[in-house]
DNA sequence: GAGTTCCTTTAACAATTGTTAAATTGTCAT
DNA sequence: ATGACAATTTAACAATTGTTAAAGGAACTC
């Protein structure tokens, strides 16, 4: 659990009492490759902290598997469009590499917001950072070419080195074939 | 100011003390068409509530004017990628229709977060809703065709009826010419 | 209301990306 | 190692979107 609180410290440092409260709604799990951490069609009731490994959020559009997000070690992953609306999500979370994960119960967390303003602030700051990341990604999808987006991605070695190209393609908003073509012209 | 608190009530109802505190960091302004509410290159130090009128967030990519977001009456607008990072924004906010606006000072707001957990909660909820909206928009840009995105937009009559097509085009991530072509095939 | 400017459409052509299918390469279990 | 399966590349063609330029319409100023 130490890693989790170190991660929290990057945003906001909790006092001892708040930490204990958080520990009460957390559990550690190990998940193996290709397993679904969260299935389709269910409301997001758990936030995950990836201690080690990789997860992705994905869904199907017209039968095609589309990756919306990758989460590597030392990061939080959650389907926010369900978490913040309470509605069922059409997205699932899948593990891409055997992972050590801390599961944080959402109903418990929301109750802690009332008792510990520190915890509410911490998660506010965490999700604000996620919001900024999403705005930047939206911007790149709005008016950058597929090649520009791929070149940007090369700056994130984790994704390039550890993720199959088929998932990278859909993450970039293009087909595998198109990505393969772009890669070949860059050689 | 009544409208503002009515808007807040949709997310979280503040008590009297919190309302007074908010009023202390707000001022009402009238802004005329085409004026810049916020210039390029400055850090976001103000959040705006649109009482009446329309605003848009935009920026230039390779010299081309791109609209990232429209805000109509009874909505909040802010450049979150600057607001939440403290970094200067390369985006500006422009008024598209003469507007009545409530300007909320950001440094003051952040100070109120410490004194009034209610206020921190309110804005947490407001920006969580914005986050969800952005995730949904990203999804539509990632794997929907331009025509699908335009058809989706037709469901938002405010945008179609009150915004010039050139701004709608860049908002959809396409050129004016392409949008015009899509419109003509739909007739 | 004449003239100017801006917005939108249309057309022709270029570039990019999608689609389908086949070939190649890589991975994994036995 | 062998076979089976998954991932990636390549190729040919189709569809979509971008680019440039010109023309028509709408809105605004004086």
Number of strands of chain A: 6
Number of helices of chain A: 9
CA radius of gyration of chain A is 17 Å
CATH superfamily of the domain at 2-115 in chain A: Jelly Rolls
CATH topology of the domain at 2-115 in chain A: Jelly Rolls
Structural class of the secondary structure composition of chain A? alpha+beta
Residues in helices of chain A, as a percent range: 40-55%
CATH class of the domain at 2-115 in chain A: Mainly Beta
Q: What's the overall average pLDDT of chain A, rounded?
A: 96
Using the alpha-carbon principal axes, give the shape of chain A. Answer: elongated
Features:
homodimer; 187 residues; alpha+beta; 9 helices; 48% helix; DNA-binding
Helix and strand topology:
The structure is a homodimer.
Chain A (H helix, E strand, L loop, with lengths): L1 H8 L6 H8 L2 E6 L4 E3 L7 E16 L2 E9 L2 E3 L2 H4 L8 E14 H10 L1 H27 L2 H8 L3 H6 L2 H8 L3 H10 L2
Helix pairs in contact in A: 4-5, 8-9
Chain A binds a DNA duplex (30 and 30 nucleotides) through helix 9.
How does this model look, in words?
The structure is a homodimer of 187-residue chains. By secondary structure, the first copy, chain A, is of the alpha+beta class. In chain A, 48% of the residues lie in helices and 27% in strands. Chain A is built from nine helices and six strands; from the N terminus they run ααβββββαβαααααα. Chain A has helices at 2-9, 16-23, 80-83, 106-115, 117-143, 146-153, 157-162, 165-172, 176-185, and strands spanning 26-31, 36-38, 46-61, 64-72, 75-77, 92-105. In chain A, strands 1, 2, 3, 4, 5 and 6 form a six-stranded antiparallel beta sheet that branches. In chain A, strand 3 (46-61) and strand 4 (64-72) form a beta hairpin. In chain A, helix 8 crosses helix 9 (176-185). The model of chain A has no long low-confidence stretch (mean pLDDT 96). Chains A and B meet through strand 4 and helix 5 of A and strand 4 and helix 5 of B. The first copy, chain A, binds a DNA duplex (30 and 30 nucleotides) through residues 145-147, 164-166, 174-181, 183-184.
């Amino acid at each position: 659990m130490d890693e989790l609180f170190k991660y929290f410290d990057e945003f906001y440092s909790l006092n001892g009492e708040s930490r204990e409260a958080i520990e009460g709604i957390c559990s550690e799990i190990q998940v193996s490759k290709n397993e679904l951490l969260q299935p389709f069609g269910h409301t997001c009731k758990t936030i995950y902290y990836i201690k080690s490994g990789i997860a992705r959020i994905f869904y199907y559009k017209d039968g095609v598997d589309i990756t919306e997000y990758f989460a590597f070690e030392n990061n939080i992953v959650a389907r926010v469009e369900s978490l913040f609306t309470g509605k069922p999500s059409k997205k699932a979370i899948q593990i891409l590499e055997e992972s050590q994960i801390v599961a944080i119960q959402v109903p418990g967390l929301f109750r802690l917001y009332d008792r510990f303003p520190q915890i509410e602030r911490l998660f506010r700051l965490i999700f604000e950072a996620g919001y900024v990341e999403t705005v930047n990604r939206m911007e790149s999808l709005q008016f950058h070419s597929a090649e520009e987006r791929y070149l940007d991605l090369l700056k994130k070695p984790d994704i390039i080195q550890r993720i199959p190209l088929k998932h990278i393609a859909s993450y970039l908003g293009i087909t595998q074939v198109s990505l393969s073509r772009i890669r070949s012209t860059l050689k």
